[in-house]
Amino acid sequence: xxxxxxxxxxxxxxxxxxxxxxxxxxxxxxxxxxxxxxxxxxxxxxxxxxxxxxxxxxxxxxxxxxxxxxxxxxxxxxxxxxxxxxxxxxxxxxxxxxxxxxxxxxxxxxxxxxxxxxxxxxxxxxxxxxxxxxxxxxxxxxxxxxxxxxxxxxxxxxxxxxxxxxxxxxxxxxxxxxxxxxxxxxxxxxxxxxxxxxxxxxxxxxxxxxxxxxxxxxxxxxxxxxxxxxxxxxxxxxxxxxxxxxxxxxxxxxxxxxxxxxxxxxxxxxxxxxxxxxxxxxxxxxxxxxxxxxxxxxxxxxxxxxxxxxxxxxxxxxxxxxxxxxxxxxxxxxxxxxxxxxxxxxxxxxxxxxxxxxxxxxxxxxxxxxxxxxxxxxxxxxxxxxxxxxxxxxxxxxxxxxxxxxxxxxxxxxxxxxxxxxxxxxxxxxxxxxxxxxxxxxxxxxxxxxxxxxxxxxxxxxxxxxxxxxx
Length: 471
Prior knowledge:
The protein has 471 residues and is α/β, with parallel strands linked by helices. The protein folds into 2 domains: 3-129, Up-down Bundle (Ferritin), CATH 1.20.1260.30; 140-445, 3-Layer(aba) Sandwich (Rossmann fold), CATH 3.40.50.150. The protein contains 18 helices and 9 strands. The chain has helices at 3-12, 24-43, 55-59, 66-80, 84-89, 100-111, 120-135, 149-159, 176-188, 191-196, 208-220, 273-283, 297-301, 305-316, 379-385, 409-414, 431-434, 438-470; strands at residues 166-169, 200-205, 225-229, 243-248, 285-296, 317-324, 337-344, 354-359, 404-408. A 9-stranded mixed beta sheet has the order 3-2-1-4-5-7-6-8-9, with helices on both faces. Helix 11 links the parallel strand 2 (200-205) and strand 3 (225-229). It starts with a helix and ends with a helix.
C-alpha cells in the first residue's frame, strides 16, 4: 500500500473524534501513543517495551474498561520502557479520549490497515505525512509554525549538512529541519561513512506535546537526536553545544506572555521573540559555523533595538544572503517572511562586506491550498546561490529588472541597516483579492486576529518590563 493511502486511512479515523471537539493537532499527538505501539510490533522495537504494555495487549483488551487500561498502560510505558527516548515519548501522558467506544474504534481502524512490507524509512514518512496534514488545519493554529517541506528541502540542499557536524534547531517543532538534514547526509554518503561520523543532532521545543511528536518523528526516521524540553531563550539552552549548522523557523509572536528570565548572554534584551532567537542563533555558532533562519519582515526593518541587533549580526557574522519568501506559504496568510543565510565570522568584527538579496515574493503567486509551494519554485534561487553553503560561489548582480542583487555594507548602513529592500514593480493584485478558498479566507481572518494579539502582547510585555525596572 502506498504511503499516501495509509496516511489517508489513519487520517480518516480522526472523524471519530470530531464529536468530542478534538483538534487535528491533538489527534496527531494522541496518534503518537498508538502508532508507536503498532509500529514497534512491525519493526522489532517491541522488545524495548515492557510485557503487558504492547500493541497486542491493547487490541486484546475488552471494550469495557479499555480506557482505564489504556491510561495505565501509557503511564507504565513512560516509566518502564528500556529506552530513554521511548520513556520521553510517553512521559507525563494525557489522553484526549473520553469514550471507550471512540478509543476502540481508532485502535480497530489502525489494526485493519495493511502494514506488511513497510521498511523502517516508510514508517517515518507516514508519520511526517500525518504531521503535514495536521498543519493544514487552520483551527488548530499548528500550521502557523509548520515550515513547508519544499522550503525545508531547499534550505537543506543549500546548507549542505556534513557528517560529524553539530546540527541544531532551537525551535524544533516536529523536527522537520533535523530530519531533512539527516536525509541529505545519508544520501550523500555511504552507510559506513555515515555510521562512522554520524552528525550530532540537537533541538529545543517548549511545548510538551509538540516535543513528543518531534521525538516520535526523529525516532522513526532513525535519528539519534537530543530534543531538550524547554525554551532556548532561557537557561534551558545551556546543554546546547557550539553548532556547525543551525536551521530554524522560530515561532511567530511576542515573548510577552512568558515570565521566565531571558538568558543573560543575549546582549540586547527585548520583548520580541524573533529578535531574541536571532541573537541566540548567531551567538550559538562556532567560528565559521553557518545558519539559515526564517524570520518575518519586521525583524529586517524594525528600528531601535532591532537595528542594533542587525548591526551586531552583520558585525559578528557574514550575512551573505537574504531570500524574500513568497506570500501565503504559512497558514497565517498575511505573514511575510524571509530566510537569512549567514556564517559566524572568523574575525571579531566587520565580517559582512556585502549582502545578496533574492526577491522570490514580487510577481509570484499567492501560495496556499489551491497553489502549493513546490521544490521547483526554489530552483532559480538555488542556481543563483551556488554550490558553496558559505555563499562564496561566484555571483552576478541581475540589476533592477532581475531578482538577484548585491548591496554593500555601506549601502545598507545608509538605509539605517534596513534589510527590507525591494526594487521590482509588483504587478499582481492585493493578497486578499487573490485568496479564494474558504480555508484560506479563514486563515486570513485568524492571521489578522493573531497579528493584533501579538501587538497587544508586545505592548503588555514592555509595560511589565518597565514596571519591574521601577520596582
